[in-house]
Amino acid sequence: MIENFGLTDVGKKRTLNEDSFLINADTSLFVVADGMGGHSAGEVASKMAVDVINSFITRSYLEEEITWPFGVDSRLSFNGNRLLTSVKLANKRVFVAAEKREEYTGMGTTVVAVLVKDRLMTICSVGDSRAYLLHKGRLQRITQDDSWIGEALAGGIISQAEAESHPLRNIITKAVGAKEQLEFEVREMEVLSDSLLLLCTDGLHSLVKDDEIHSILTSRPDLPAIGQALINSANQHGGADNITALLVRIS
Prior knowledge:
The protein is α+β, with helices and mostly antiparallel strands. The chain has a single domain, classed as Phosphatase 2c, domain 1. The protein contains seven helices and ten strands. Strands 1-10-9-6-7 form a five-stranded antiparallel β-sheet. Strands 2-3-4-5-8 form a five-stranded antiparallel β-sheet, with helices on one face. The longest helix has 23 residues, at 78-100. The relative contact order is 0.21. The mean pLDDT is 92.
């Protein structure tokens, strides 16, 4: 059984919400995107990416003779290829839209997406939106940030304490639609029963530390209460950005 709930909030500092999220219960697809770009282009980019990903996943679910415009990666499962292709299509669509309209120049979006099918969970992320998994009381981040800070931490260039106040902490190194070609990792893991999945934008995880996220996820019984508590916590910590939390409980 899969339960889900999603919530987004403009935060305390912004006037426009450039986050988008998607829950497709029919295909067990869950997506969160955080757009960027002036003149509301970020909102356009995140919505466009989410729609394109959903469209391809839905079509590939319903049509046996689907076209694979980027070929098939033999290292990935069918669902892995579905998710890979859908995000690459989203990248192409956002990039082309940005090329055609001056006001969309430079727009792009982060994406974190999860596709659940049978006993496998397929995950991909571009940018710094994240996926966390709570299982048997342990919270694990299951995506890697595509950001200057993430790469500096992984390379041992800076410490976690330095990362929290570093002037480059908001710089991402990959975004859907920023370049014509996009390479990213798709990974798969076994679906764990009695687990809780959180997809979120940096408006949440940059302000609410992992131990507080863990506390919120484990201290409330229902998903709407958890989602609202996460949003409230980010706003209490300043609400500097749009905040999105998407929750999936697998039981």
